[in-house]
Amino acid sequence: MPNINVTQLEQFAANLLIAGGATDEEANLTATGLVAANLCGYDSHGVMRIPYYVGALKDGEVCSQAEWKILRESESHIVVDANWGFGHVAAEHLVNKLVEKARTHGTGIGTMMQCGHIGRLGQYAEEIAALGLVSMIMVNSHGAVHRVAPPGGKASRLATNPICIGVPNGSGDSSEPLVLDFSTSATAEGKVRVKWIAGEPVPDGWLIDNEGRPTNDPSVLYESKPPGAILPFGGPQAYKGFGLSLMIDIFCGALSGGLVSREKAESPKGNCVFMMIIDPAHFGGADHFAAEVKQLAEFVRACPRAEGVDRILLPGDPERNIRQQRAETGIPLDEGNWKKLVELAEQLSVVVPNA
Fold first, then answer.
1. Closest to 144 in 3D by CA, of 277, 335, 272
2. How far apart are CA 322 and CA 287, in angstroms?
3. From residue 165, how far is each of 82, 126, 132, 141, 277 by CA, in Å?
4. pLDDT, tens digit, for every residue of 285-315?
5. Which of 11, 110, 250, 307 is 20 to 30 A (C-alpha) from 326?
6. Using an 8 Å Cβ cutoff, are 303 and 281 in contact?
């Protein structure tokens, strides 16, 4: 299994994207976001996405230097058409606009349609929390992909529709924000894809085949006709994950002017985005907010631990733990996904770093 230095992997990722048709700015921002996802353990949102991004550029599903067009705007909200530009670039623009609105008016709410894949949501929540602000971020698949079956169903009807909520922990410059970031499905589709490319089985409880039977074979999602599906999160109470996913589809697709899940795709694969940023200073007060969050975090951390448990984990802790480890040892990539990147590099005449 290759283990790649973070700086080397960022440069390799950027070089691949530039050779595939992205500008330097688009490539560098996207590469940084992808490697940051790998760095904190979200390999499903990491560099394994690059062959798809390059293919989307070639096919016109993602456009370099796309216009980031404001459709409607007020003091506290904005509606944007990203015109199928790079998702990481479009999302950073949205964050910057909403931070300004939240600072001035207390709240900034934005939607964005026709946007390329924006990557790991927690990345933006961490950036926003570092400014002392609260955020909620959700995306759907722009109605182009549905991978998740409703409870009792044996065919997919919704995308994995992730949600992320982030808050600063104690103070605006805290290095340990509380970031809750998860798919409303039992797993992210990208994690299934990683297993499929690597030739590995998935854990129990992730997938069903096209007859509704539990399976550990990731190929049912990509090779079966009709395909299998991912289950909603919640296990025996999967209606909770499914219900949340349904509402996210509406908040992202219907509210933005974009699309929700449907039988046949009417647009390229991408994201409709809902993002809300709040400045606590305009509500109960920044100092009060910081003190209460700190108190809550410390109270939960101090919970008596069961045998064998070293530490009570809060949202954001697992990512920080993995980030620290991988920053020191490098980012591991399985042979299957590394091979895909090497093959792409050979096609684009990009130098491959030593693994």
1. 272
2. 30
3. 23, 10, 14, 19, 10
4. 999 999 999 999 999 999 999 999 999 999 9
5. 307
6. no
Q: E strands of the chain, at which residues?
A: 3-4, 69-73, 77-85, 107-115, 134-140, 163-167, 178-182, 207-208, 214-215, 229-230, 271-278, 331-332
Q: Give the chain's largest Cα–Cα span.
A: 56
- Residue pair 253/143 in contact by the 8 Å Cβ criterion: yes
3-class SS at 305? coil
Tell me: the pLDDT tens digits for 218-269?
999 999 999 999 999 999 999 999 999 999 999 999 999 999 999 999 999 9
Alpha-carbon distances, residue 7 vs 63, 101, 161, 298, 343 (angstroms): 26, 34, 31, 35, 21
> How far apart, in Å, do the first and last CA atoms of the chain sit?
9
Query: Residue 273: which of 134, 89, 131 has the closest Cα?
Result: 89
Token digits of residue 202: 């998935």
Q: Confirm whether pTM is higher than 0.85.
A: yes
- Residue 298: phi and psi, rounded to 5, are -70, -35
The dihedral over CA atoms of 78, 83, 86, 90, expressed in degrees to the nearest 10, equals -10
